[in-house]
Amino acid sequence: MDTHKSEFFGFWLFQIPVAYLLARHFELGATGVFIAIPVAETAITIVSFILFKRGGWKLKKYNRLYILPGRSSCQVFLLLIHQAVKCHGRLRE
Predict the structure, then answer these.
(1) Do 29 and 48 belong together in one domain?
(2) How far apart are CA 31 and CA 90, in angstroms?
(3) Domain housing 45
(4) 21-66 pLDDT, tens per residue?
(5) pTM score, two decimals?
(6) Beta strand segments in the chain, E
(7) Do 52 and 64 sit in the same domain of this protein?
(8) What total number of domains does the chain contain?
(9) In terms of domains, do 29 and 72 share one?
Protein backbone atom coordinates (compact mmCIF):
# COMPACT_ATOMS: atom_id res chain seq x y z
CA MET A 1 0.00 0.00 0.00
CA ASP A 2 1.50 3.33 -0.98
CA THR A 3 1.04 6.66 0.77
CA HIS A 4 -1.80 7.81 -1.48
CA LYS A 5 -3.82 4.78 -0.49
CA SER A 6 -3.06 5.36 3.18
CA GLU A 7 -4.32 8.94 2.85
CA PHE A 8 -7.50 7.76 1.10
CA PHE A 9 -8.22 5.01 3.60
CA GLY A 10 -7.18 7.22 6.50
CA PHE A 11 -9.77 9.76 5.47
CA TRP A 12 -12.66 7.39 4.74
CA LEU A 13 -11.96 4.72 7.36
CA PHE A 14 -10.64 6.88 10.17
CA GLN A 15 -11.33 10.61 9.91
CA ILE A 16 -15.00 10.43 8.98
CA PRO A 17 -15.92 7.80 11.63
CA VAL A 18 -13.96 9.66 14.33
CA ALA A 19 -15.63 12.92 13.32
CA TYR A 20 -19.03 11.25 13.48
CA LEU A 21 -18.34 9.70 16.90
CA LEU A 22 -17.05 12.94 18.36
CA ALA A 23 -19.87 15.00 16.88
CA ARG A 24 -22.79 12.67 17.61
CA HIS A 25 -21.83 10.18 20.31
CA PHE A 26 -19.83 12.57 22.48
CA GLU A 27 -22.12 15.46 21.52
CA LEU A 28 -19.30 17.81 20.54
CA GLY A 29 -20.94 18.91 17.30
CA ALA A 30 -18.75 20.90 14.93
CA THR A 31 -15.97 21.01 17.51
CA GLY A 32 -15.75 17.21 17.35
CA VAL A 33 -15.44 17.33 13.58
CA PHE A 34 -12.62 19.86 13.81
CA ILE A 35 -10.86 17.77 16.50
CA ALA A 36 -11.03 14.71 14.22
CA ILE A 37 -9.08 16.48 11.46
CA PRO A 38 -5.68 16.80 13.23
CA VAL A 39 -6.15 13.42 14.92
CA ALA A 40 -6.72 11.71 11.55
CA GLU A 41 -3.94 13.65 9.84
CA THR A 42 -1.52 12.59 12.58
CA ALA A 43 -2.56 8.95 12.14
CA ILE A 44 -2.18 9.23 8.35
CA THR A 45 1.27 10.79 8.81
CA ILE A 46 2.40 7.93 11.05
CA VAL A 47 1.12 5.27 8.64
CA SER A 48 2.70 7.08 5.66
CA PHE A 49 6.02 7.32 7.49
CA ILE A 50 5.98 3.58 8.23
CA LEU A 51 5.17 2.80 4.59
CA PHE A 52 7.93 5.16 3.45
CA LYS A 53 10.48 3.48 5.72
CA ARG A 54 9.57 0.07 4.28
CA GLY A 55 10.92 1.30 0.94
CA GLY A 56 8.38 -0.14 -1.49
CA TRP A 57 8.30 3.22 -3.26
CA LYS A 58 11.84 2.61 -4.57
CA LEU A 59 10.62 -0.07 -6.96
CA LYS A 60 7.55 1.77 -8.21
CA LYS A 61 7.45 2.33 -11.97
CA TYR A 62 6.73 5.85 -13.19
CA ASN A 63 6.09 6.29 -16.93
CA ARG A 64 8.35 3.39 -17.87
CA LEU A 65 11.09 4.82 -15.66
CA TYR A 66 12.40 2.91 -12.67
CA ILE A 67 13.76 5.09 -9.92
CA LEU A 68 16.61 3.06 -8.51
CA PRO A 69 19.30 3.98 -6.01
CA GLY A 70 21.96 3.84 -8.78
CA ARG A 71 20.65 6.98 -10.51
CA SER A 72 21.54 10.44 -9.34
CA SER A 73 18.70 12.75 -8.40
CA CYS A 74 19.66 15.03 -11.31
CA GLN A 75 19.37 12.15 -13.79
CA VAL A 76 15.98 11.15 -12.39
CA PHE A 77 14.76 14.75 -12.51
CA LEU A 78 15.83 15.20 -16.13
CA LEU A 79 14.26 11.88 -17.17
CA LEU A 80 10.99 12.79 -15.44
CA ILE A 81 10.94 16.17 -17.19
CA HIS A 82 11.59 14.43 -20.51
CA GLN A 83 8.70 12.00 -19.88
CA ALA A 84 6.39 14.86 -18.88
CA VAL A 85 7.19 16.81 -22.05
CA LYS A 86 6.53 13.70 -24.16
CA CYS A 87 3.18 13.12 -22.44
CA HIS A 88 2.21 16.79 -22.77
CA GLY A 89 3.01 16.69 -26.48
CA ARG A 90 0.70 13.69 -26.93
CA LEU A 91 -2.13 15.45 -25.16
CA ARG A 92 -1.92 18.49 -27.45
CA GLU A 93 -2.23 16.43 -30.66
Answers:
(1) yes
(2) 48
(3) 3-57
(4) 999 999 999 999 999 999 988 988 888 888 778 877 666 655 555 5
(5) 0.54
(6) 61-62, 65-66
(7) no
(8) 2
(9) no
